[in-house]
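tool_call: predict_structure(chain=1)
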Amino acid sequence: MRFLIVGAGAMGLGHGWLLSKQHDVIFLVRPGRADFYRQEFDLRINDLRPGQTMGCHHFRPVVTETVSGNPDAVLVMVDRLHLAEALPRLVPLASHCPIVFMLNHWDLARQVNRFLAPTDYLIGFPSQLGGGRLGHLLTLTVFGSGTILQAPQGDRTAMIRGLTRAFEVSGLRVHHQRRILDWLRVHCLQQALTAAPILEAGGFVALTEDRRALDRLVRAFREGLAVCRAAGVPTWRVWPGPLFLLPTPIVVRVLQGMFRRPEVAAMVTGHMRHGLPEWVQGCRDIHRAGRQAGIRTPELDHQMEVLTASGWPGPRISTRPAFPASGS
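tool_result:
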């Protein structure tokens, strides 16, 4: 297949590297950035898939500054804060190939539907990879599974199954979600509601050792799940929602054990290098939705205070077009 990847951060580049082993991959980058992305990237990979090992690799992306050609699929992997820049430029592609949005976003459909019809796009999530980028160095963990795509349904069945095969021959093990938007909202909590606790604790490692801070994180997550339910999400069906039905001390121990895993710590700290503003925006989105629903959220209120005190009055979401239209 021919993939066009919109977004050349750690997730976009990591997936492009994996997919390029079996497919043609080209990256759509911002004007003036092509020379940077045409240079070779060094990848330090902690590969947890069966039969794979840690190693260093090199990857030289193929890039373009214009929407052109005839891709078989488009993967949108920009972060939440830059999605508005990309959406207008995707419109000409909607009738030609599947567009798959793979990013963390509390209210993705509402924003995308301003430009595309729901039948014009699919939703997934790149949770099989984690890590970060520093210049031309990528540090990534590849987990054994975790790539998400919405479940095949109706006249989209063949399209989604084709994408699934294309991912899996590249080593991405796909799990299908029937209620993908519900899943995405619950998943958004996992990053968005850890931003303030990490800042308040003084870092991710400090958070993992602070049981009182983890206790507050559990209570904040339960408030976030209440906001999800107000939006119609059956949280008892969407993991990790059921975990938070357990007594708080048990949930704290589970989270502490998970956070202490080296691969999880590497993924979180790597992503934070560039992704923290996106997490903060997600937290603000969830808090705003809770207030609009009339839900009492004392822990989320506290997180807003922490973010403000930490110098996060709210990142400005750019609306400047970054991707020129086809032929421009």
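agent: DSSP finds twelve helices and twelve strands in the chain. Proceeding to next step.
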